[in-house]
Amino acid sequence: MALPLLGPPLMARSGLSPESIGYVSALTSGGISWFLACGGPMLGHFGAVRSLQIGLACMAAGLLLMAQPVGLVALLGALAIGFGCGPNTPAGSQILIRTAPARHRTLIFSIKQAGVPLGGALAGLAIAPLVQHHGLQAALWTITGVTLVSILLVQPFRRRLDAPAGTTPAPAPTASWGRALFSPRVFARSLGVLRSHPSLPLLTALGASYSTMQACLMAFTATYAITRHGATLAEAGGIVAVMQFSSMIGRVLMGWVADRRGRALRHLALQALASAAAVALLLVAGGAGGLALYACAALVGFTAIGWNGVHIAELARVAPLPLVSDVTSAASLFGFLGSITGPLAFAWLVGWSGSYELAFLAAALQLALFGAISFLVLRRDTTAKGDDR
């Protein structure tokens, strides 16, 4: 979450235009997609918590590479950061599907997912002062230190959470997990699990659309505020922090509502339409700057970034229990493909048109389209089942 906030100084150090942070964001998403496509055997070999620790170590190494002034080395660092982030969703789903009570499952998944925007909000508040007072290198080293400390803090819980429910042994090792990271056959098999339930293709497509919108917001909001509204780096960090805190509240509240009302997929479809409207409002009312910009950023965070917990919980609910981590990995893979293509297309569109507003509207339009399609498909299926009865 710190990388987009570091975008302007990182790109300036490399002699690149500000919107080039979109390419770094895309490469990070590429690393995540790599793990989601081929990392299932690694997750089975090491267990959920150990895989998360290994991921954090990869992120720390990637941050150290990002601290180097050589452009190619920094790009490799972005790839390593993405790969390290990859275990987050499947490992978390594997743990929570075994431990969360069914009546509160969506809420608990949403609370877990709220940790993501909380980290982003803390980054928004801390990164700019670090850069301003201590420099870019110190900021990167500080984030690396926090990452390494997190590896140690989770260690006391590893044995209990890595063991299957009701047992103490660790998961059975998978000898070929290293080769699997580069295996096309493992990649193809990981996508095949999306046929295990009729709702999964639609859930996956809607999640990919949300991910595209979220990636564009996370990669470009700070740069948009600086270049179009004359915000300082600290002000841009504050705007991102407001957006992230709001999304944290949105994830928890949306999870609570989904548990009470059910119909999570319908909920996600309607939220997609509201999210697109909120992004459009950000561009119109946010143009006034000041408090209006912060208020619109909060609304965007609540809607367009507050969807993830409901989505992951619904994926875990409909997936066969032995395939929960595989299904969430495969669906998240398509989401992160959206996270790659979205910032790339956004950066190209800004470079071609010179307009951030046009690029944000294009991202909002595709989300509204997928939300409308999902809503119509659900309505048709519900009508058909009613006719059958």
List the helices and strands and how they pair.
Blueprint: H1 2-5, H2 7-13, H3 21-38, H4 40-46, H5 48-66, H6 71-85, H7 88-99, H8 105-134, H9 136-154, H10 158-162, H11 177-180, H12 184-192, H13 200-229, H14 233-261, H15 264-284, H16 290-304, H17 308-318, H18 324-353, H19 356-388
Describe the structure in your own words.
The protein is mainly alpha-helical and 389 residues long. It has 19 helices and no strands. 52% of the residues are buried.
CATH architecture: Up-down Bundle
Mean pLDDT, all residues: 82
Q: Compute the number of structural domains.
A: 1
Poorly predicted segments: 165-175
Percent helix, as a range, is: over 70%
- The count of strands amounts to 0
Over the alpha carbons, how many angstroms does the gyration radius reach?
A: 20 Å
Instruction: Output the number of helix runs.
Output: 19
CATH level 1 class label: Mainly Alpha
CATH topology: Growth Hormone, Chain: A
End-to-end separation: 49 Å
Strand/helix succession: HHHHHHHHHHHHHHHHHHH
Oligomer: single chain
